[in-house]
Amino acid sequence: MRRCRVCGSAIEPFMSFGPMPLANGFLRAEEFASEAFFDLEVAFCERCAMVQLTEPVPPELMFHEQYPFYTSGSTLMTAHFHRLAAEVAQSLAREPDAFVVEIGSNDGTLLQAFSSGGTRHLGVDPSRNVAEAARAKGVETLCRFFDEQAAREIVLEYGQADAIIACNCFCHVGDLHALAAGIRALLKPGGLLVFEDPYLGDIVRLTSYDQIYDEHAYYFSAGSVSAWLSPYGLEVIDAQPQAVHGGSMRYTVARKGVHPARAGVAALRAEESRMALQAPHTYSLFRRRIEQSREALRDLLTRLHQQGKRVAGYGATSKSTTILNYCGITPELIEYITDTTPLKQGKFSPGAHIPVRSPAAFHFDFPDCALLFAWNHAEEIGAKETAFRSAGGKWIRYVPRVTIE
Q1: What is the β-pairing status of strands 218-219 and 394-397?
Q2: Total number of domains constituting the chain
Q3: β-strands 187-198, 161-167 pairing
């Protein structure tokens, strides 16, 4: 019997995507035979409302010395993180010798604002290549996984944190209890935790099922976050929707009773009740929409192939791995995927084994259509790829529905 990793209740998957490779496991042809797969199943816990993968992948397989994602690769996300850093810095203006810790700090894009301003800071990230990139920018970084032991070691060397920040990180952490215990140990009595992750309500509303992959072990709502953190003496005091990553939520957390809750928390809980995010039937309906989306996308790509149209993928994202493998999309339907990340170029997509090429290949000979895997950056990409549209190119989208335009 499967058990919820937050409250221990019995759970059953409401959706299975079948065997799935590592979402960021881009590989060379000689590595095809040794590629690892796991069962991608997602379940809803009726007791604590946490949506979660039933088979978490060992973290060291996902986060390592060649992690192929750098936060600074997106100008949109860089600007977003700079704004967040400015807000946190403003809240710390009255704190003498403030200390800021970012969990999952990647290449230091966010903490760079604190580093350049002389604020005491520390990034914590388990992937060596991005940690080294952060250090090269002057961002002090500890290369390891964050847990209670790491927190206690940080406190011994630096003291407790006035602010802890995490962006698109907590959903990656398999052991939420170790994470919460670490936060409790590291946070000052009056300190604040600010974290952002993809929001369950947006995933359900938009049928953005490509957000479900190995690195995303959990899919948070206000209700499930409260159920997770409450036993550790922590509570959500604010919740602010964010447009990034196709719909995220920024939660502000403090020790219970220290700071008053703001109106955004009650408003979000009311909206989650209206959406019935705590009801099992919501996820049965979600599964049906996922299945319908898969059929619509396969039908469209098959029709374009029969018409002799060339289709390329745009953005070798983690999300694309779920779409390609669940929908059974092969190199016959998508010629290649273009991506700006050097670590991915010249390799093949996980599972589907579609070649990944540089933007130069895309610009040299535009395809007829581009399947937009990086749909959450559509505005930024559209502004950059005006020549593709001028040449008659069409974008294929699958969120919130399958379209070609």
Answers
A1: unpaired
A2: 2
A3: parallel
Say if residues 140 and 115 touch (Cβ distance below 8 Å). yes
Residue 229 inside a domain? The answer is yes
Q: 42-46, 102-106, 370-374 — which is least confidently predicted?
A: 102-106
Contact 181, 155 (CB under 8 A): no
pLDDT in tens, 211-269: 999 989 999 999 999 999 999 999 999 999 998 878 999 999 999 999 999 999 999 99
CA–CA distance, 211 with 326 (Å, rounded to integer): 13
Cβ–Cβ < 8 Å for 200, 51 = yes
pLDDT for 127 = 86
Give domain status of residue 83, yes or no.
yes
Same domain, 162 and 214: yes
Same domain, 386 and 255: no
* Mean of the per-residue pLDDT values of the chain: 93
Would you say residue 323 has pLDDT above 80?
yes
CATH of the domain at 389: 3.40.50.720
Integer Cα distance of 148 and 151 in angstroms:
5
**Residue 306: exposure state from Cβ atoms within 10 A (0-12, 13-18, ≥19):** exposed
Last residue of one domain, picked from the residues 276, 305, 340: 276
